[in-house]
Amino acid sequence: RTMIGIIGRKLGMTQIFNELGQQIPCTVVEAPPNPVLLVTSKDESGFASVQLGFGTQRIARESKQNERTPRGRRANKAEIGHAKKAGLDAPPLALKSFRIDDAPGKDAEIPTYNVGDMIDLSIFAPGDTVKVTGTTKGRGFQGVVKRWGFGGGPNTHGNTKHRRPGSIGPGTDPSRVIKGKKMPGRYGDERHTQTHLRVEKIDTERNLIYIRGSIAGPRSGIVMIRKQA
């Protein structure tokens, strides 16, 4: 049976050398075994999927008498109960759902999984083509030059509007700013999927996968790695 995805944490970038001596830039992702917390059939929601977990959350102490509960977020009872059904002591830090009825290959069989199964990096092999989904770096509120790549105005000859957007619409018709106009605003912190990436190396002992090129997100960002046809 084949599984088409796993959740991991981006560690950063490095370089490796292949058999031809070529230098290959790679992103290293740590992907420890992911437990299956929920299995959805095609009859229930129209498509077959599994819900995987990554990492562990902190939980509140059982006895709070004469003890100070440390600061920070703790898992709620709903999350703890959901994890207990899968046989986990603590709820995962991240939950992601993977569709399994669109596996690469013509007429591919839909694999069967049970709650409590563990998915590891053995589902991948060097040379596989994958797509990686992550959250891009958040850059806060930015202007149009940085956010959209506007050219800006001249820097000399008395110009005082160097990085301004300029006119944003005509006055008489349509007498409003058109929806979708590229203007200053929040930039980054968005879901992004990079496709057609090659798996260069897999270290099963340390749960590391080396992916050619760059992927979205900062260091320690949570990413989804899925097989691609």
List the helices and strands and how they pair.
Blueprint: E1 5-17, E2 23-30, E3 34-40, H1 42-45, E4 49-54, H2 77-84, E5 94-99, E6 118-119, E7 129-135, E8 141-142, H3 144-148, E9 185-186, E10 191-203, E11 208-212, E12 222-227
Antiparallel strand pairs: 1-2, 1-12, 2-11, 3-4, 3-6, 4-5, 7-10, 7-12, 8-9, 10-11
Task: List the defining traits of the structure above.
about 230 residues
Walkthrough of the structure:
The chain has about 230 residues and is mainly beta. Helices cover about 5% and strands about 35% of the residues. It is built from 3 helices and 12 strands, in the order βββαβαββββαββββ. The strands form 3 sheets. Strands 1-2-11-10-7-12 form a 6-stranded antiparallel beta barrel. A hairpin with a 5-residue loop joins strand 1 (about 5-15) and strand 2. The chain starts with a strand and ends with a strand. The model has no long low-confidence stretch (mean pLDDT about 90).
Summarize the structure.
It is built from 3 helices and 12 strands; from the N terminus they run E-E-E-H-E-H-E-E-E-E-H-E-E-E-E.
Q: Output the strand order for the largest sheet.
A: 1-2-11-10-7-12
List the uncertain runs: none
- Could you tell me the mean pLDDT? 90
Tally of individual helices: 3
